[in-house]
# Entry
Amino acid sequence: MSDAPQRDPSDRAETDAVRARYARRAPADDRYRLTNPAALMAMQERQRAMLALFARRGFADLGSLRLVEVGSGGGGNLLELLQLGFLPEHLAGIELLPERHAAARARLPEAVRLSCGDAGAEPVAPGSIDMVMASTVFSSLLDDAFQQRLAAAMWQWLRPGGGVLWYDFTVDNPRNPDVRGMPAARIRVLFPEARLESRRVTLAPPLARAVCRLHPGLYTLCNVLPPLRTHLLCWLGKPA
# Structure
């Protein structure tokens, strides 16, 4: 750990805005539960893509890697990582919203380090982390400068040869002004020194739900067409 970084005064305004945006969202419903075939298929697809990415990067021993998740929510992604072979004592999560932080604490092993607050102000020692995970985080941040400062903090935490594991959607949602798409061009602006490897994944959720009502196998069939995929899974590598 290191001393907490100095924060820009505008950061408080953006974190308050994020809390307000989440407060406006409807409570989680069955669309996002794994009992819904569309949600299950999307999760399994993402996991397969992650494991393929790890294999390409030569990460044979996931238990040796130190990972911090920014925006760890209720702990779902950290649970997945445990199942994939990461060790609890090497995992950490940072969550802005207290109720989500409490949910994660209740379901994860005590060895997983969790903190509640602004990730950009977290006192993580520079160069101490192998992997920083950000899953559908930056699409909820509407202030460009705040995004840039958070990205810079994440980049500083990484050791040379480490990287950011990124998953987020690329297109705007016309029904939700509280989020915005994060295309590859914007990711490159946020992490200008990174070696970007990306893969388009995740069948557009409204389409996925519609076709899975007919048959779950249609998810894979429709997902063959890249234009129907709405998210990017990226590795943003820090040069060794």
